[in-house]
Specification:
Layout (H helix, E strand, L loop, with lengths): L1 H29 L6 H78 L2 H33 L5 H16 L2 E8 L6 H22 L3 E8 L5 E7 L17 H12 L3 E6 L5 E7 L8
Parallel strand pairs: 1-2
Antiparallel strand pairs: 2-3, 3-5, 4-5
Helix pairs in contact: 1-2, 2-3, 2-5, 3-5, 4-5, 5-6
C-alpha cells in the first residue's frame, strides 16, 4: 500500500506538467500557426485540467476503497475486543454469583442436618434469587455475544430494542431519549455505551424496585457524550458503597468502561430517593479528545 500511495503522489505531481510541457513543445515546433496565442493557452489549460481530473478521480477512488477496508478491519477488531470483554465480565460476574450460590447451598445442607428448617428456607430463598440473577446474566451475555457478531450493529437500534425487551420483561416504563449524530461513535465506543446502559438497567431490574426509568443519551461529532439513567426506585447509600463489594460488580464494570472511552461516571443515590447514573465526556472544543 505504501508503494501505491507513493505512485499516486508522483503521478499527481508529474503527469499534468509532462502533458503541458509535451503539448507546448509540439505546439511551438509544429502547430504554431493553428494553435498560437490564446487558442494554445486554452487547449493547454483543457488538457492539463482533463488529465488532472482523471488522475485525481483514480486517486480518490483508490483512497475511498482503502478507507472502507480499514473501517471494516477496525470494526472487526472492535467486535473481537468486545467479545473478549464480555467473556471476562461473564467470568468475573458469574463466578461471584455461582460462588455465592454454592455457599448458600452448602449452608442449607448443614441447616437441614441440624433440623433448622426455618433458616434453611430463608437461605433457599436467597439461593433462588441468586439463581434468577445468574439466569438473567446468562441471557444478557447471550444477547451481547449475538450483538457482537452482527456487523451491521448500530447503537440507536440496539438501545431501542433492548429497552423494549426490558419493558416487556419487567413492566417498568422507560422514557427513552436518544440524540446521536450519524457516524459520530466508533463501534468499540458504541459497545461500551450500550453495555453501561445494559448494566444500569440490570441493576434497576435486580435491586431498584422502580416503576419508571429515564434514559437519555446525547452524542455528537465533536466527541461530547452525555448519558443519564435515572430511576424512581428505593435507592441506596452511595457513601456506604466501597466500590468493590460483590453486590456492586456492575457499578465497577460501568466505571471501567467509562474510563475506556475517556468519560467520567458519577452515581447519585440515597435511600428512598432513587438512583441516577451520569456519564459525561466533553467535546473537542471543550478540552475533550
Amino acid at each position: 500500500m505504501t508503494m501505491n500511495y507513493s505512485r499516486m503522489r508522483w503521478l499527481g505531481a508529474i503527469v499534468p506538467g509532462v502533458v503541458a510541457w509535451t503539448f507546448e513543445t509540439l505546439r511551438h515546433e509544429f502547430f504554431e500557426r493553428g494553435t498560437g496565442g490564446a487558442v494554445g493557452n486554452i487547449v493547454t489549460f483543457a488538457l492539463v485540467t482533463s488529465v488532472t481530473f482523471v488522475i485525481l478521480h483514480w486517486v480518490f477512488d483508490a483512497m475511498e476503497s482503502v478507507t472502507k477496508r480499514l473501517a471494516e478491519e477496525q470494526n472487526r477488531s472492535a467486535l473481537l475486543k468486545e467479545r473478549e470483554r464480555i467473556a471476562r465480565e461473564m467470568h468475573d460476574g458469574l463466578s461471584q454469583s455461582l460462588f455465592f450460590l454454592n455457599t448458600k447451598l452448602t449452608r442449607v445442607e448443614k441447616l437441614l442436618d441440624r433440623g433448622d428448617l426455618k433458616t434453611a428456607q430463608e437461605v433457599i430463598e436467597e439461593a433462588r434469587r441468586a439463581t434468577e440473577e445468574v439466569y438473567t446474566r446468562v441471557r444478557q451475555t447471550i444477547y451481547d455475544l449475538r450483538a457482537a457478531a452482527a456487523e451491521d450493529w448500530q447503537l440507536e437500534r440496539a438501545l431501542a430494542r433492548y429497552v423494549a425487551e426490558f419493558e416487556d420483561d419487567t413492566g417498568i416504563e422507560v422514557d427513552l431519549a436518544i440524540e446521536v449524530e450519524p457516524e459520530c461513535a466508533a463501534v468499540e465506543e458504541a459497545f461500551h455505551l450500550f453495555r453501561i446502559v445494559q448494566e444500569a438497567l440490570f441493576n434497576v431490574r435486580r435491586h431498584a424496585e422502580a416503576t419508571k426509568v429515564r434514559l437519555a443519551l446525547f452524542l455528537d461529532k465533536s466527541g461530547r457524550c452525555e448519558l443519564e439513567i435515572a430511576d424512581n426506585g428505593r435507592g441506596f447509600d452511595v457513601n456506604a458503597w466501597s466500590g468493590t463489594s460483590g453486590g456492586h460488580f456492575g457499578l465497577v464494570m460501568m466505571q471501567e468502561r467509562s474510563k475506556l472511552i475517556g468519560a467520567g461516571l458519577r452515581v447519585e443515590s440515597a435511600p428512598g430517593q432513587g438512583t441516577r447514573i451520569r456519564l459525561f465526556r466533553p467535546g473537542a472544543a471543550e478540552g475533550g479528545r
